[in-house]
Amino acid sequence: VKKAIIIGVGPVEGLGARLAQRFAAEGLHVIVAGRSGDQLESLVQLIRDSDGTATSVVADATREEDVAQLFDVAGDDLDLAIYNAGNNTPGRIVDMEAAYFERSWRVGCYGGFLFGREAVRRMLPRGGGTLLFTGASASLRGRANFGAFNAAKAALRTLAQAMAKEYAVEGVHVGHVVIDGAIAGDKIRKGLPEYAEKLGEEGMIDLDGIVDGYVYLYRQSPRAWTFELDVRTAKERW
Ligand SMILES: NC(=O)c1ccc[n+]([C@@H]2O[C@H](COP(=O)([O-])OP(=O)(O)OC[C@H]3O[C@@H](n4cnc5c(N)ncnc54)[C@H](OP(=O)(O)O)[C@@H]3O)[C@@H](O)[C@H]2O)c1
Predict the structure, then answer these.
(1) Whose CA is nearest to atom 7 of ligand 1?
(2) pTM of the model
(3) For every residue of the chain, which 3-state class applies, written as one string?
(4) Which of 9, 51, 64, 97 is in the most buried spot, having the most CB atoms within 10 Å?
């Protein structure tokens, strides 16, 4: 059975968890990785209750040894790997601690390198696979008060683009999804309830709609590959 690894999996009402549920429904064995073992375990249970198969691994995307161990759990037949880890890191540069900027880069970019490297190491011997990265509005433009996040996400995007060109001929399809706006999930609803209320349901991007984009990329034939998809609500001004 084909396997998928998704890192950056949190609450059920979040992108990582929704991706895991959908790819399990598509018939893949899904290995879900993140920092909260409890959240991962309840997701695995949900997937099993829907007749899917999944394994959870507690891993920090910024730790080289955690990432290597995660791929060891997958073993052979890794067909899909998704780098979804990341939290927004707002802040003005003038006040910013150097360590804060570095942490933002570690999860936003360096972790993508560690994960992408292990993924291609596993995929090349089997003749290919799909490697997808989660981006944000920040991937494409700098914005006041978001310099650290912008720098990390833009670097992740060009890393993904370089890898797409480096490994295409060997069968690895690398893609990048620009999520241009707030996701209608726990991160915004619970973390920033006033912002969520201001945006309204119609102003937040639908989780299932985003997941559709990942499935679309995964299913593409090597004769018509997309590198980048963007997704936003009809209300978004961009
Ligand atoms: N939410 C939005 O509005 C929005 C908008 C545009 C783009 N995005 C992008 O979408 C992705 C996440 O989507 P989401 O907001 O719905 O969240 P999510 O997929 O529900 O959860 C992301 C998970 O990544 C985890 N994570 C953070 N740092 C990590 C690390 N070093 N190692 C392992 N896991 C780590 C977080 O864990 P902790 O809870 O422990 O931090 C969280 O559980 C991110 O790449 C984000 O930049 C989100």
Answers:
(1) 136
(2) 0.98
(3) CCEEEEECCCCCCCHHHHHHHHHHHCCCEEEEEECCHHHHHHHHHHHHHCCCCEEEEECCCCCHHHHHHHHHHHCCCEEEEEECCCCCCCECHHHCCHHHHHHHHHHHHHHHHHHHHHHHHHHHHHCCEEEEEEEEHHHCCCCCCEHHHHHHHHHHHHHHHHHHHHHHHHCEEEEEEEECCCECCHHHHCCCHHHHHHHCHHHCECHHHHHHHHHHHHHCCCCCCCCEEEECCCCCCC
(4) 9
